[in-house]
Amino acid sequence: MDLRPRHRQSFSGFTKNEVLKMEQLINDSKEQCMEVQSCKKLAKLFNRSSGRAGKPVVKWTEIQSWYQQNQQQDTFKETSSNEPKNLANATEAVTQNKATGNPNIPEEKDIISRLEFEARSSKDGAWYDVDTLLSYRSLSSGEIEIHVRYVGFGAEEDEWVNAKVSIRVRSIALEHSECHTVKVGDLVVCFQERQHQARYYDAHVLEIQRRWHDIRGCRCLFLIKYTHDNTEEKVRLRRLCCRPEKLVNLP
Questions:
Q1: Cα–Cα distance for residue pair 9/12, rounded to 1 Å
Q2: Which position has the higher pLDDT, 25 or 167?
Q3: Which of 13, 41, 217, 243 has the largest CB neighbor count within 10 A?
Q4: Integer Cα distance of 173 and 118 in angstroms
Q5: Which residue has the higher pLDDT, 206 or 178?
Q6: HEC readout, the chain
Q7: pLDDT digits (tens, 9 = 90+) for 61-99
């Protein structure tokens, strides 16, 4: 299975002005804006703007992925009237699952009303952003499974996942100024890069080397241990995502 890009509407890495610019272009010419040269030209424009100072460089592939995701969302809006009902039922099944002891769902109602999810694939054990909750079913064991579609993938990659252990509120990419919220012992989601694959996996923070920030942002180093293979690695903040309850519980 190829890498499923992680795109968060609230934490995509694009500034408000950049999103407005892309929305304007996609309204003017949806097909042309997704061409490679158009994406490269736009990435160069963004990276030279004053609003990108101190922020990570925008890659043209990230812009193209944003357009592709936008196009998929438009496609889903045109589906049959039965699908919104299935989506509502599936969302309700996940949110109600917190009553059975699932600690992954924050309690605040305003957060529940705009939940975004990630699911753990049974094919590689990695976490991927969920684009659509298609449906749900109750097993004879009493457990609930959710039928999910992943961001950036078609119906051939849809999966049934366990609602209690394999789907949860989407992890949040941290801003450079939020590195102080990461503590030793925290459960995080880390982008593991290998020669032939790159995936997001659960990990625990073992050690933190605090460093001064510069124009590039956070320069701290985090020693993490992946839960799926027990390997350890030192990473920068840009490769870490925190669990949303971590931010909810901050004073």
A1: 6
A2: 167
A3: 243
A4: 13
A5: 206
A6: CCCCCCCCCCCCCCCHHHHHHHHHHHHHCHHHHCCHHHHHHHHHHHHHCHHHCCCCCCCHHHHHHHHHHHHHHHHHCCCCCHHHHHHHHHHHHHHHHHHHCCCCCCCCHHHHCCCCEEEECCCCCCEEEEEEEEEEEECCCCCEEEEEEECCCCHHHCEEEECCCCEEECCEECCHHHHHHCCCCCEEEEEEECCCCEEEEEEEEEEEECCCCECCECCCEEEEEECCCCCEEEECHHHEEECHHHHHCCC
A7: 888 888 877 765 554 444 334 444 454 556 566 655 544
Structure tokens at 243: 């669990």
Q: Are 235 and 221 in contact (CB under 8 A)?
A: yes
Residues 149/86, Cβ–Cβ less than 8 Å:
no
First to last CA, the chain: 40
Q: pLDDT tens digit string along 105-163? A: 444 434 433 568 899 999 899 999 998 888 989 989 989 999 999 988 888 889 999 99
Closest by Cα among 168, 234, 175 to 205: 234
Distance CA 220, CA 104 (A): 27
Tokens 């009553």, located at residue? 99
User: pLDDT digit string (tens) for 188-199?
Assistant: 999 998 877 788
